[in-house]
Amino acid sequence: MGYESVSFKDAIANRRSIYSLTKKSTISDGKLKEIVEQAVKDVPSAFNSQSARVVVLVKEEHDKFWDIVTAILKAHVPESKWEHTRQRMEGFSGAYGTILFYEDPEPIKTLQSKFPNYADKFPQWSEHTSAMHQFTLWTALEAEGLGANLQHYNPLPDQKAADTWNIPLEWSLKAQLVFGEPAEGAREKLADKASEPVEKRALFFGL
Ligand SMILES: Cc1cc2nc3c(=O)[nH]c(=O)nc-3n(C[C@H](O)[C@H](O)[C@H](O)COP(=O)(O)O)c2cc1C
User: Fold this and answer.
1) Any idea where this protein resides (predicted)?
2) Cβ within 8 Å of residue 160, ≥6 positions away
3) How far apart are CA 43 and CA 188, in angstroms?
4) Cβ contacts of 81 within 8 Å, gap of 6 or more
5) For atom 4 of ligand 1, which residue has the closest CA?
6) What string of pLDDT tens digits covers the 207 residues of the chain?
């Protein structure tokens, strides 16, 4: 089963936060590239800003990213809390790859000058644009049998990541999607999610 054969409905329903991931992928790197490029091309953005930027790191490059985060956290986290953080870092490092989601402020600034009435809204819409890309890729990877979890270690690694991969420093890092083939039984072991009644959360009129 893959992107082409899983229904949109099933991919949405099956997507979960999976932390127990392996250094394997269910798809080729070529397929991964295709999926990411399609998302960047087709996911909408506010006023068609096309402000989303993604950086895909796999294998050694993924390890390098989590080494950067771990080193920075080591300097910040008190010794008594380190073990918990170390284990989390080990979990992320143990995955196949990470997608870094950035927003480029340049197109946002251009839109703010062009549409001054909405100037104060564009930064928020830029966050929405990033979130749309995050959800699309999280769900698209799910449809390929990959597991993923979403992290927010920005802005800690921003500078070092910019130096390491020659990423413009102006790009603003929003989130990190860690992914890989789920460890044996990881998906099955997930607890059912507590859910507020959907009737309270979705209202319908005139149906
Ligand atoms: C906007 C957003 C931010 C999130 N941030 C984090 C995060 O920083 N770390 C983390 O482990 N999970 C994060 N999550 C995952 C949520 O905790 C998770 O999606 C939620 O509990 C529902 O569980 P599920 O993903 O298994 O459906 C985030 C999810 C969303 C949508």
Assistant:
1) Cytoplasm; Nucleus
2) 68, 72
3) 30
4) none
5) 150
6) 577 789 999 999 999 999 999 999 999 999 999 999 999 999 999 999 999 999 999 999 999 999 999 999 999 999 999 999 999 999 999 999 999 999 999 999 999 999 999 999 999 999 999 999 999 999 999 999 999 999 999 999 999 999 999 999 999 999 999 999 999 999 999 999 888 999 999 999 999
In the reported structure, the alpha carbon of residue 41 is separated from the centroid of ligand 1 by a whole-number distance in angstroms of 25
* Pocket lining for ligand 1, CB < 6 angstroms: 16-17, 149-152, 193
Ligand 1: which atom is nearest the Cα of residue 16? 26
* Residue 131, in any domain of the structure: yes
For the chain, the domain total comes to 1
In a domain, residue 5? The reply is no
Which tokens in the block code for residue 24? 């394997």
Ligand 1 atom closest to Cα of 19? 11
Nearest ligand 1 atom to the CA of 152 is 8
Tokens describing residue 11: 């991919």
